[in-house]
Amino acid sequence: MRPLFVSIRIAAPMERVWELTQDPAQHTRWDARFSRIVPTAPLAGGGTRFVYERRLPGCVITGTGTTIGERLRPDGTATSALRFDADTRLSPLGAGRGYWRYRPDGDAVLFSTGYDYAPNWGRGLDLLVRPLIGWATAWSFDRLRIWAETGTPPERWPLRSVLWWWRSRRPRAARCERRAPHRHVMADAPATLQELAQP
Predict the structure, then answer these.
(1) Backbone angles phi, psi at 166, to 5 degrees
(2) pLDDT digits over 36-88, tens only?
(3) Could you count the other beta carbons within 10 Å of the beta carbon of residue 12?
(4) How far apart are CA 190 and CA 98, in angstroms?
């Protein structure tokens, strides 16, 4: 299966996009994939360990992860990398790794992610799960864009707003680019925990 890729152009300053994505309390407000993210301990080489939750009817999916906040490049691009793993077989996503990339684009930021994971429920069911996870990522990215550009809190757009077809400004996954510009989608994702911890 191919790694997931999502990208969106956000007409807001880099500092604003960074703040809304790197602060765990803000992150869970716009990202439909998480209900809670709690930092637990710093990494020796920089970065943080964290635990996460996704509350669903009748169950709570939990997991752990490690993230390093920033790797700046000469072109002004910043990258945030992570590794994660679910604590339970209830999660369709097993161990994985990924990144967020922030690329300046005039007065805007191209915000993109690439990530991959081992399917906990087998490759057959992942044929259904992976597109759904990709859609949830893209829908969440557009909800983030609306927040960063207009100040409209993401809570104004609950998941059920997908059905509000009469609201043309509602978050839509279709506003995101889902096709990676090159084959090396995972080039900025850490391969090992040691690589993640390097400054």
Answers:
(1) -80, -10
(2) 999 999 887 778 899 999 998 888 999 999 988 666 778 888 988 899 999 98
(3) 21
(4) 7
